[in-house]
């Protein structure tokens, strides 16, 4: 057996002389980081407003909607060459619980990845996670890890030089093009103003062939394109990841204007790194995509049962595991996702359709868990305490071990 693949990580340190990124209407503020902090009270560093170094090429779409910018790309998307994919990174915006996992999978098979976040603490935590897990994931798949870099400077994230070279017409030069991301995936909290503000900035900062993807679990990119409004929805789409690398399914859905060529290209790239894409037909807009529409009903009723005192988390999950023979029940899954994220999604569902949620259950979740900093795995305590979760993991391991032994002895 050959030597273990070598993981290369690089952190780009930048000066913090940042200015506020504003849309034409509001300042977007990041919610509590979704990294695995053990401190139940978010630090001030995690409540800083979204920031970016402001120079002419790096302005929001709101600033240019009515202008005649020379570097406006045509409303047509063409795929990057296979040769360029070996050099051009995937940009992951947000180093939280999901962002770091998405980055890990894209960094397999010798793919370069850049992770951007305003929080050095979140980037350090993401780097530790990737260092601990990427080699094992690549060894399992028989691949080699790519180069992973992290940065707090969005200029550096959108091009390796940090200062994209442009020609006389304002277009990014071919040399600069080979160093810019071919896809940007936002993995930010479930806030429509925040996501549209960041996507608006990215579409002005990145080449015309860069795919813009949102990992939102409840917001459609059609909503984001309308809210911005974003100028180039033909290269915008939803790519809803679950909890990679263990869950490798990805739901792909159009913004309503996403070019068909992206649907021919992107699923193949996902399969090369181990993802399993499910594509919603292009003419359909489905709030919650596929799985989340089913999961929402289970989650909603689980929270209602807990809020009404009908059963405890352990009882609900035990029934779920016994009936469906699943590894985990809905309460353990919600702890894994993060109860703050669950609360934001439930709030969005209520605003969209009051029949899709319960104000009482949402209030119960916030008062008893979110407001107390009990967010699930990332703060250790959630619907299950840290000790209860450790016991569950030990039981999962023993059950799997016994099942394997019984199969081997059959």
From TrEMBL:
<keyword id="KW-0560">Oxidoreductase</keyword>
<dbReference type="InterPro" id="IPR013328">
    <property type="entry name" value="6PGD_dom2"/>
</dbReference>
<dbReference type="InterPro" id="IPR006176">
    <property type="entry name" value="3-OHacyl-CoA_DH_NAD-bd"/>
</dbReference>
<dbReference type="InterPro" id="IPR008927">
    <property type="entry name" value="6-PGluconate_DH-like_C_sf"/>
</dbReference>
<dbReference type="GO" id="GO:0070403">
    <property type="term" value="F:NAD+ binding"/>
</dbReference>
<feature type="compositionally biased region" description="Polar residues">
    <location>
        <begin position="31"/>
        <end position="44"/>
    </location>
</feature>
<feature type="region of interest" description="Disordered">
    <location>
        <begin position="31"/>
        <end position="50"/>
    </location>
</feature>
<feature type="region of interest" description="Disordered">
    <location>
        <begin position="60"/>
        <end position="81"/>
    </location>
</feature>
<dbReference type="InterPro" id="IPR006108">
    <property type="entry name" value="3HC_DH_C"/>
</dbReference>
<dbReference type="GO" id="GO:0016616">
    <property type="term" value="F:oxidoreductase activity, acting on the CH-OH group of donors, NAD or NADP as acceptor"/>
</dbReference>
<protein>
    <recommendedName>
        <fullName>3-hydroxyacyl-CoA dehydrogenase</fullName>
    </recommendedName>
</protein>
<dbReference type="Pfam" id="PF02737">
    <property type="entry name" value="3HCDH_N"/>
</dbReference>
<feature type="compositionally biased region" description="Low complexity">
    <location>
        <begin position="149"/>
        <end position="161"/>
    </location>
</feature>
<feature type="region of interest" description="Disordered">
    <location>
        <begin position="145"/>
        <end position="176"/>
    </location>
</feature>
<dbReference type="GO" id="GO:0006631">
    <property type="term" value="P:fatty acid metabolic process"/>
</dbReference>
<feature type="domain" description="3-hydroxyacyl-CoA dehydrogenase NAD binding">
    <location>
        <begin position="90"/>
        <end position="280"/>
    </location>
</feature>
<feature type="domain" description="3-hydroxyacyl-CoA dehydrogenase C-terminal">
    <location>
        <begin position="288"/>
        <end position="384"/>
    </location>
</feature>
<dbReference type="Pfam" id="PF00725">
    <property type="entry name" value="3HCDH"/>
</dbReference>
<dbReference type="InterPro" id="IPR036291">
    <property type="entry name" value="NAD(P)-bd_dom_sf"/>
</dbReference>
<feature type="compositionally biased region" description="Basic and acidic residues">
    <location>
        <begin position="163"/>
        <end position="176"/>
    </location>
</feature>
